[in-house]
Amino acid sequence: DRPAARTLAERAVAASPANASALLALSYTRQADADIAGAQAAIEQALAANPTDALLWSRKAELAAAMNDPNGALEAADRAVGLAPDISRSYTVRGFVALSALATEVATAAFDEAIRLDSTDPLPQLGRGLAAIRQGMPDEGTRHIKLAVGLDPSNALLRSYLGKAFFEQYRDPAAAIEYRRSRLLDPSDPTPWVYDAIRLMANNEPI
């Protein structure tokens, strides 16, 4: 319910314009409405009042990556890690930023540290799996992504990535099952449709 979420976030910010949590919420609701510039503005406002908040710097890194600003994303992610070296989220964001920059070894180290700090978070497990697959280790990658799905089994995107991992292992029936599960969990997500189309093309089923 994006309109209600945005209304509540705006009310929170109006009540407390410097509150980091309120501005973080506003950032997410704006991004959900495809307003990336507005999401960035909310984080900049939050950082102006809370310059040592590592979660805000992590969020800034996410948005910089979304805007195809790898240098800005890396700088913000490093700042987050420097401010809070004991928070898993900082390393997770650092890992995904490094992965998008094709710095796979750096990403792997960041994800490993995130997992060490919080073994219950599925996102660093996903990142670790993607890094392993990119390094030509599909079995290890699949193991990490399966762990991510086990930690959050109703997450449609994780199911899509697990299907893709099975596809990399040439396990076609298992991949098809995960894509179907992903579509059931989130019918509006295009990811499983794209990955399933690639699978079908590989099976010589272009129609």
Task: Name a few traits of the molecule.
78% helix, 0% strand, 12 helices, globular, mainly alpha, single chain, 207 residues
Task: Provide structural commentary.
The structure is a single chain. By secondary structure, this protein is mainly alpha-helical. 78% of the residues lie in helices and 0% in strands. The protein has helices spanning 2-15, 20-32, 36-49, 54-66, 70-83, 88-100, 104-117, 122-134, 138-151, 156-168, 172-185, 191-202. Helix 8 packs antiparallel against helix 9. The radius of gyration is 18 Å and the shape is globular. The mean pLDDT is 94.
The shape, in one word, is globular
* Strand segment count: 0
**Secondary-structure element string:** HHHHHHHHHHHH
Radius of gyration, in Å, reads: 18 Å
Biggest sheet descriptor = none
**N-to-C span:** 35 Å
Specify the structural class: mainly alpha
How much of the residues is beta strand, in percent? under 5%
> In terms of per-residue confidence, which ranges show pLDDT below 50 for 5 or more consecutive residues?
none
- Average pLDDT, all residues: 94
Number of helices: 12
* Fraction of residues in H or I helices: over 70%
